């Protein structure tokens, strides 16, 4: 039986939704490993819409589920319908949508709240001892919900290669153990069944990000 993995998206586009290359890499690697992806997204308005040419917000309004359907080629379900009983694992790609639409991390950092639907899904998989894969910024969700967990967002010292390293410091303040790692590496928190990798938290070539996401997917499936 093929393993069924829920993939939760946060829109479409790095600055206001899911990072498309990370989401695509997750789907490609799940397919390569013979797993079945079930894609979900919350049916809610985006925090805002960003013009990805100018890098600035626009007056538009868009829906997270509708935008996520672009990545899923229309084969997507409302997150409210997710039933953990029929699924073997959960993966949440990164992108600013995680910090804007799935939580308020973008505006409130460690003092953020996580969407009730998203928190409910994460807690359900955790309670069922089913693995959760997180990449890029999405490990902040685990840091907020599961105190004492171990994750990685790459490095905790800011530099040209690691422009978002302050995220690790904020996670530590939540009581999370941050583990420094390279973009091609993953960290496995065996106790909490969390698998994380830094992806585009690192200023790295896209194929390195793709390979790191692949390792994350394989570890999630190994634990499932």
Automatic annotation (TrEMBL):
CDD domains reported in the protein's UniProt record: GATase1_ES1
InterPro entries: Class_I_gatase-like
Coiled coil: none
Gene3D superfamilies (alphabetical): 3.40.50.880
Protein name from the UniProt record: GAL3A protein
Species of origin: Ploceus nigricollis
């Amino acid at each position: 039986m093929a393993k069924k993995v829920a993939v939760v998206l946060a829109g479409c586009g790095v600055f206001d939704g899911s990072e498309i290359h990370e989401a695509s890499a997750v789907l490609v690697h799940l397919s390569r490993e013979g797993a079945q992806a079930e894609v979900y997204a919350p049916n809610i308005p985006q925090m805002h819409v960003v013009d990805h040419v100018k890098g600035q917000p626009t007056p538009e309004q868009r829906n997270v589920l509708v935008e996520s359907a672009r990545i899923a080629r229309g084969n997507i379900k409302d997150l409210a319908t997710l039933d953990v009983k029929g699924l073997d694992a959960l993966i949440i790609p990164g992108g600013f949508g995680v910090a804007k639409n799935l939580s308020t991390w973008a505006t409130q950092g460690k003092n953020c709240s996580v969407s009730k639907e998203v928190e409910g899904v994460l807690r359900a998989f955790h309670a069922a001892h089913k693995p959760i894969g997180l990449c890029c910024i999405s490990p902040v969700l685990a840091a907020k919900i599961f105190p004492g967990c171990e994750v990685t967002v790459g490095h905790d010292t800011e530099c040209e290669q690691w422009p978002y390293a302050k995220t690790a410091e904020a996670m530590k303040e939540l009581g999370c153990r941050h583990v420094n790692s390279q973009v091609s590496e993953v960290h496995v928190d065996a106790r909490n069944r969390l698998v994380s990798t830094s992806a585009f938290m690192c200023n790295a070539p896209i194929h390195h990000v793709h390979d790191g996401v692949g390792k994350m997917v394989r570890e999630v499936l190994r634990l499932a």
